[in-house]
From TrEMBL:
It holds the Pfam family Peptidase_M20. Its cofactor is Mn(2+). The Mn(2+) ion enhances activity. This is Amidohydrolase. It comes from Candidatus Cryosericum septentrionale. Residues 201-296 form the Peptidase M20 dimerisation domain. GO terms for molecular function: metal ion binding; N-acetyldiaminopimelate deacetylase activity. Mn(2+) binds at residues 115, 117, 151, 178, 377.
Length: 404
């Protein structure tokens, strides 16, 4: 075992000694991608970059889901009983103005990689290079997926599935990993059962009767109704959710009114409901409809509701976690594989896990000593690039064990 930054240990045998070379390559890819971010389904430049990198490795990549890329690498170690391992990286950036002062900061104003997807893509490109150089270390097939549009619902995973990413050849195991700034550097978060929540989206339009602000009795105030709705919706969590279960209801935007002395005709709101099962999401959605409709009616207004069920929860099977645990423990050290807290964030990797066995894990990148603690989706977000050797070691270990 080799000591890594933060006290993490990594597997070191004759086949892993050159991992640092590929880790430096991952960082170079990350720097380019971070400087040239593109949001969901607007990644022609990112797609070209990934495609060119894979072509340079002698692979034959194909576009998928508009701006995604997929490619396969066959091992030469021998037959692996038809096993096909899917490795996925998400590639989209966020519409956010960067405030990091990194030397490779975003050159695309108003867009930045604030969730680690540049690191995911850089890692998988470097993993592709390692696999091409070490085909004799695995059998079967590795299918690489550089997936677009993880950040927006309905996302890119469903189109990838519909376009056959899990077929030809048929995937038998899917593995995904997210760099995670809320987990201590070098720790691997592995959990059976729900890991990430269902992420639903809704829009509400409250319509009243506009009037002069000095004569509220002549109208029906949608702002007052909207305020009551925001407050009342929190009872879905505080009074309609089992205290041992989890739900989140958040109003993210409120738009209404044009002047200080006018009661407007309508108010528009958007928000999200999160739950750890589709059943709980459906119950929450029914409660939301009831509360919004009745609160609006009680205040002399009406409400239109547009509710969209989003990504299902990410659920790791017990069997997949049991298979991965010893692999990860050998790769990073037994004490560094931990059970993470469930996140109420969403991830469309869930769609792959609905179709094939597999698992999704977190890799900790939080480094207090270096001041790298900004949360995801924050303009100051970045991560400790010393994580790349560990990230590559994990992917390589999974490939070698699953496809041996």
């Amino acid at each position: 075992m080799l000591n890594a930054p933060g006290g993490t240990t990594m597997e070191t045998d004759e086949n892993m000694l050159d991992i640092d070379t590929y880790a430096r390559e991952a960082a170079e890819h990350r720097h380019y991608l971070h400087a040239h971010p593109e949001p969901s389904f607007e990644k022609q430049g990112t797609q070209r970059y990934i495609t060119d990198c894979l072509h340079n490795l002698g692979l034959n990549p194909s576009p998928i889901a508009g701006t995604g890329v997929t490619a396969t690498i066959a091992g030469t170690q021998g037959p692996a009983n038809g096993k096909v391992l899917l490795l996925r990286a998400d590639i989209d950036a966020l519409r956010l103005t960067e405030e990091t002062d990194l030397p490779f900061a975003s050159q695309n104003k108003g867009v930045m990689h604030a969730c680690g997807h540049d690191g995911h893509t850089g890692t998988l490109l470097a993993v592709a290079h390692w696999l091409v150089d070490h085909r004799d270390q695995f059998g079967g097939t590795v299918k690489l997926l550089f997936q677009p549009a993880e950040e927006i619902s309905p996302g890119g995973a469903q189109p990838c599935v519909k376009e056959g990413v899990l077929q030809n050849p048929d995937v038998t195991f899917a593995f995904g990993m997210h760099l995670w700034n809320t987990l201590e550097f070098g720790k691997v978060g592995l959990r059976a059962g729900p890991l990430l929540a269902e992420a639903d989206r809704f829009e509400l339009t409250v319509t009243g009767k506009g009037t002069h602000a000095a004569a509220p009795h002549l109208g029906a105030d949608p702002i007052v109704a909207a305020a009551q709705i925001v407050t009342s919706l929190q009872t879905i969590v505080s009074r309609e959710t089992n205290p041992l279960e989890s739900r989140v209801v958040t109003i993210g935007t409120i738009d209404g009114g044009s002047a200080f002395n006018i009661i407007p005709q309508s108010v528009h709101m958007t928000g999200t409901l999160r739950a750890l099962s589709r059943e709980d999401a459906e119950l929450g959605a029914a409660s939301l409809r009831r509360i919004v409709s009745h609160t609006a009616e009680a205040l002399g207004t009406t409400a239109a509701i547009d509710y969209e069920f989003g990504y299902p929860p990410v659920i790791n099977s017990c069997e997949s976690v049991a298979f991965l645990r010893p692999i990860l423990q050998q790769a990073v050290g037994e004490g560094n594989v931990v059970e993470p807290e469930i996140s109420m964030g969403g991830e469309d990797f869930a769609y792959y896990l609905q179709q094939v066995p597999g698992a999704f894990v977190f890799l900790g990148t939080r480094n207090v000593a270096k001041g790298l603690t900004a949360p995801h989706h924050n303009p100051k977000f970045t991560f400790d690039e010393d994580i790349f050797p560990i990230a590559l070691s994990i992917f390589v270990a999974v490939v070698r064990r699953y496809l041996s």
